[in-house]
């Protein structure tokens, strides 16, 4: 029974579970026990299960290493010897005699569970809980297993998940025609034991423990019949954190330096400079690094980065080729100062184009200096497109103003994107959004998604964080989830779209940014448990972002629909499912609505019911009068459908549009509820949309878009 390395056998697994207070079968190694006091915890003739335990023997039944019989020492010793001969390729550990547990079953329904306790390198400790037994694979598509990151969820929250799961409903007798096999008290105690067991697994160096099956014994106690796993020494050292001062240096720099500005117009460095010069930063705060020049384009120049040692900058933007970028960062580290945060524009560092190991050198340099307690700059990128910080009207994006004219509109939204293209297309499409900052973070070679989330959490101006990611840096999934949970605990929202979910998407993400996408199901489970609003479609992300851009707090569960088109009314009713529902009017409110319809001259055309179809005969006054009534009802949100082709709506006079939009926005603010508008028309009505957006109303192209965004927000954990 010598100890093994790498493989956690069943005898040891039982001991770890029992130490956590979990029910396991009575058990003992037949040879090990007899070498001690000569007794075993079984009565002669008692039904038992003999298991052959050998190193790396995961599936004992397949190898003839499981025997059902009665307790007879000599017969069991002979059977154990036969088992040993059947598995010569596996170093023998011993014959494990186990109690044969009588457990509860239901005909035609799954009653066995599979539990996996796993130390994931990115997410930390996870508990995967699903239907087990021999048919586990067949049941999984119908009832996917639950995934619980223990750092983010409590046993009580896990019990709520289990209660709603197929297996939990079966165990608790909530399936039609079944009786309870156990109760919630026993299940909660079992879950609490799993949480305790993780601490013991961590101490023992266990990385995985799979329990299959877990059954309910005659008293309804969950009992692990089998358990095997893996062990490994954790040799990874924690990632050293950058100086938190980087955040203000990035979004609110007072001294900014750019390297790589060319005399040729249209080049990356030149575009960055032209954009930066339009900011509120005074010219005296800007410098260039340009060897051989004392002055360039009217700005003072430094001969090299060495001069920053005595006159440091808050932010240094490097628009240089990859090899020169690495040299500058190494020089900064050697000289012990120069810039709080360095933004790397170049690719070719740690991605598919890096054939010389430049990225590894960069990471090693930063890590060496931080671990030694030496000054080290915080690095954004590489492969970064820039940032936009409206408070200073600071635009460091290398997109010319003629392509992306940005209006400095400070607000409560923070956007962070691994893809620069994703970021700028959102800035282009949603110019009305009030922003604290919008940052393209590139390959996350140093500052990672979790760092940006923590930076936003430290900024009281940020109420909502929107993020696009293609992959997590090693170990950063857990850190990102924990940072998101901190944001949620302080009342902020986190909205995320995760790209690279398919094998093809993972390959594209890797070639694009050098980041591996990882397992989407695991990532999604961890992020949702942290309270992240995880959009499955980009359109849903954009819609939720528009809503949260106007209304950072609140979570509408009841929605009133008001349109001037029958198809919108019908289609909207079909969409009011899931976490929210269509609101209902009281008898008095229905009477008031009928009176409003009559006052607007729409009697005989409009029915006083929800969803409300005002017909194309409704004008702005009818909309406003009805909106006021609906906002006084139980509805948390009102979605207004405006098919603008009707002659009753003024869609060309900006003054009239502004008056209507302003009053609709005022009604929303006075009620403390959400109002959004869908304008279902072509480019001819862009002015109309612009006027509505100017009044801080979220505007959508379709009712479906508006309601999909609301549904995601309403699903918030």
SSE map:
Layout: E1 7-8, H1 10-19, E2 27-29, H2 30-34, E3 47-54, E4 66-70, H3 73-86, E5 92-99, E6 113-120, E7 124-131, H4 136-139, E8 146-149, H5 155-164, H6 166-171, H7 184-204, E9 206-216, E10 222-224, E11 227-231, H8 246-251, E12 256-259, H9 268-276, E13 286-289, E14 295-296, E15 299-302, E16 313-318, H10 322-335, E17 339-344, H11 358-371, E18 378-380, E19 387-389, E20 394-395, E21 410-417, H12 420-429, E22 435-440, H13 449-457, E23 464-469, H14 476-489, E24 493-498, H15 503-513, H16 520-529, E25 533-535, H17 538-550, E26 558-563, H18 566-575, E27 581-582, H19 587-599, E28 612-613, H20 620-631, E29 637-642, H21 654-671, E30 674-679, H22 686-694, E31 699-700, H23 703-714
Parallel strand pairs: 12-13, 12-16, 13-15, 16-17, 17-18, 21-22, 21-23, 23-24, 24-25, 26-27, 26-28, 26-29, 29-30, 30-31
Antiparallel strand pairs: 1-11, 2-5, 3-4, 3-5, 6-7, 6-9, 7-8, 9-10, 9-11, 14-15, 19-20, 19-22
Helix pairs in contact: 5-7, 10-11, 13-14, 14-16, 17-23, 18-23, 19-20, 20-21, 21-22
Kindly describe this structure.
The chain is α/β, with parallel strands linked by helices and 717 residues long. The protein is built from 23 helices and 31 strands. Strands 1, 6, 7, 8, 9, 10 and 11 form a seven-stranded antiparallel beta sheet that branches. Helix 20 packs parallel to helix 21 (654-671). The longest helix is centred in the N-terminal third of the chain and has 21 residues, at 184-204.
């Amino acid at each position: 029974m010598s100890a093994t390395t790498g493989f956690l056998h069943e005898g040891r697994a039982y001991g770890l579970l029992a130490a956590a207070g979990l029910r396991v079968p009575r058990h003992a190694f037949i040879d090990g026990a007899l070498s001690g006091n000569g007794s075993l915890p079984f009565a002669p003739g008692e039904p038992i299960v003999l298991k052959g335990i050998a190193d790396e023997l995961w599936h004992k039944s397949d190898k003839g290493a499981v025997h059902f019989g009665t307790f007879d020492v000599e017969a069991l010793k002979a059977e154990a010897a036969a088992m040993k001969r059947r598995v010569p390729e596996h170093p023998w550990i011993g014959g494990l005699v186990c109690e044969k547990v009588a457990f509860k079953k239901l005909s035609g329904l799954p009653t066995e569970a599979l539990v996996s306790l796993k130390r994931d390198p990115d997410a930390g400790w996870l508990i995967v809980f699903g239907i087990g037994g021999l048919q586990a694979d067949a049941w999984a598509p119908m009832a996917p297993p639950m995934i619980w990151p223990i750092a983010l969820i409590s046993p009580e929250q896990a019990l709520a998940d289990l209660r709603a799961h197929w297996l939990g409903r079966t165990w608790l007798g909530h399936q039609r025609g079944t009786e309870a096999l156990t109760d919630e008290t026993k299940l909660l105690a079992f879950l609490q034991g799993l949480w305790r067991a993780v601490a013991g697994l961590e101490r023992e160096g266990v990385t995985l423990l799979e329990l299959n099956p877990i059954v309910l014994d005659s008293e309804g106690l969950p009992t692990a019949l089998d358990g095997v796993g893996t062990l490994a020494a954790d040799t990874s050292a924690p990632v050293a954190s950058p100086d938190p001062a980087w955040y203000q240096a990035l979004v609110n720099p007072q001294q900014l330096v750019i390297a790589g500005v060319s005399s040729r117009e249209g080049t990356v460095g030149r575009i960055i400079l032209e954009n930066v010069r339009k900011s509120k930063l005074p010219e005296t705060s800007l410098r260039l690094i340009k060897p051989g020049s004392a002055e360039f384009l009217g700005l003072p120049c430094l001969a090299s980065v060495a001069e920053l040692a005595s006159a440091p900058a808050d932010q240094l933007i490097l628009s240089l080729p990859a090899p020169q970028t690495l040299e500058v960062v190494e020089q900064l580290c050697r000289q012990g100062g120069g810039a709080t945060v360095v933004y790397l524009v170049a690719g070719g560092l740690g991605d598919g184009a890096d054939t010389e190991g430049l990225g590894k050198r960069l990471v090693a340099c930063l890590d060496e200096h931080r671990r030694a307690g030496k000054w080290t700059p915080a690095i954004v990128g590489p492969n970064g497109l820039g940032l936009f910080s409206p408070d200073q009207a600071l635009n460091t994006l290398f997109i010319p103003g003629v392509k992306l004219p940005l209006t400095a509109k400070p607000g409560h939204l923070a956007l962070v994107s691994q893809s620069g293209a994703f970021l700028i297309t959102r800035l282009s499409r949603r110019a009305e959004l009030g922003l604290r900052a919008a940052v393209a973070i590139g390959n996350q070679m140093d500052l990672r998604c979790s760092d940006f989330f923590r930076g936003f959490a430290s900024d009281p101006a940020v109420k909502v964080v929107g993020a696009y990611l293609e992959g997590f840096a090693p170990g950063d999934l857990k850190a990102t989830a924990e940072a998101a949970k901190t944001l949620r605990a302080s009342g902020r929202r986190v909205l995320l779209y995760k790209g690279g979910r398919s094998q093809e998407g993972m390959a594209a993400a890797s070639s694009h940014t050098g980041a591996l996408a990882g397992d989407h199901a695991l990532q999604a489970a961890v992020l949702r448990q942290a309270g992240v609003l995880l959009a499955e479609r980009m359109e849903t992300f954009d819609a939720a972002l528009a809503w949260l851009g106007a209304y950072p707090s609140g979570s509408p569960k009841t929605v009133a629909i008001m349109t001037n088109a029958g198809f919108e009314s019908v289609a909207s009713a079909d969409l009011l499912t899931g976490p929210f529902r269509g609101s209902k009017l009281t008898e008095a409110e229905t009477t008031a609505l009928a009176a409003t319809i009559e006052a607007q001259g729409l009697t005989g055309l409009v029915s006083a019911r929800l969803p409300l179809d005002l017909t194309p005969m409704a004008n702005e006054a009818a909309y406003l009068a009805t909106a006021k009534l609906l906002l006084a009802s139980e509805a948390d949100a009102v979605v207004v459908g405006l098919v603008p082709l009707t002659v009753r709506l003024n869609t060309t006079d900006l003054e009239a549009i502004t008056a209507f939009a302003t009053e609709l926005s005022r009604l929303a603010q006075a009620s403390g509820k959400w109002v959004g508008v869908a304008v279902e028309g072509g480019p001819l009505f862009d002015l109309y949309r612009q006027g509505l957006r100017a009044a801080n109303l979220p505007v959508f192209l379709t009712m479906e878009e508006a309601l999909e965004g609301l549904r995601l927000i309403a699903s918030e954990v």
